[in-house]
Amino acid sequence: MPLPKAELHLHIEGTLEPELAFELAARNGVTLPYADTEDLREAYRFDDLQSFLDLYYGLMAVLRTERDFADLADAYLARAAAQGVRHAEIFFDPQAHLARGVSMGTVVEGLWRALGDSEARHGVSTRLIMCFLRDESAESAMDTLMAAKPHLDRITGVGLDSAEVGHPPVKFREVYEAAAALGLRRVAHAGEEGPPEYITEALDVLGVERVDHGLRCMEDPELVARLVRDRIPLTLCPLSNVRLRAVDALADHPLPAMLEAGLRCTVNSDDPAYFGGYIGDNFDALPLTDEQQRELARNSFLAAFLEDDEERRAAYLAELDAYGT
Ligand SMILES: [Zn+2]
């Protein structure tokens, strides 16, 4: 039985495996520019950010209906459960779908079909986090937040993703203020390819409670001290960092040093269909002791947005404590 854990950094669009992509394409009459699943799997071996993004956004064309989004999320939850995930906080990118003429309602209600059944089917509790594409305008982000208003009973928080450099957190100050006023939790990708200053800005200007990636904090000792002092969780994604060249090799990954520094790190899979593995594979990718793996799992439950269900958090922590004993 795998170590029980929470996944806090997972883009649902990044869980689209070649087999499901072809199945949805056939269902929706979409023609993919690949001969078969093997040909498509070959394309998943991209070697830079742009080729990843081209493939990532291109393949979204197969996601059209509520049923498609439900099938996507259900397939992820089954895989996550098999790797020990007990709680998943799932990102989605509404702008990428709205731009294709797919409505907010189709996306959110489709995902919810799977999330609503997840505990019964997979034993995984869930939260949904709506991300803004930071390379789109602040106005587009605000429009997206407004479009989500009828669905806020399904959405726990907001996040910020896509190409980081040149799109500092401050660009989204107003939309994050509006999200806070609506009672939404706040996270943001920061310090992945962007500088440590983006992490500070995400904390100070956007009021984020967790930092997604955040590995470049290690370049700024004062920032590290602050993150340690305030117990700000960081959602690390080792396999993603190597595939997108944020670090050169797994052997160079700063995660062990970050744990050593006292940072509240978690391990997650980001876009697992594209980056070579789900959460358990990310745990296994680094040379971690059993104690470190347990610390990471513990951090994931402590960092989860479970303030409305502390009993559940306590139960997960108790399950972790009992694991392997
Ligand atoms: Zn991400």
Short description:
Zn(2+) binds at residues 9, 11, 189, 270. With 325 residues, the protein is an alpha/beta fold.
Structure in words:
- With about 325 residues, the chain is α/β, with parallel strands linked by helices.
- It has a single domain, classed as Metal-dependent hydrolases (TIM Barrel, Alpha-Beta Barrel).
- Helix content is about 50%, strand content about 15%.
- The protein has helices at about 20-30, 35-45, 50-60, 65-80, 95-100, 105-115, 120, 140-150, 175-180, 195-205, 220-230, 240-245, 255-260, 270-275, 280-285, 290-305, 310-320; strands at about 5-10, 85-90, 125-135, 155-160, 185-190, 210-215, 235, 265.
- The chain has an eight-stranded parallel sheet.
- Strand 4 (about 155-160), helix 9 and strand 5 (about 185-190) form a beta-alpha-beta unit.
- Helix 1 crosses helix 2 (about 35-45) and helix 8 packs parallel to helix 9.
- It is globular and about 50 Å long.
- The model has no long low-confidence stretch (mean pLDDT about 95).
- Bound molecules: zinc ion.
Descriptive labels:
325 residues, 48% helix, TIM Barrel, eight-stranded parallel beta sheet, zinc, hydrolase
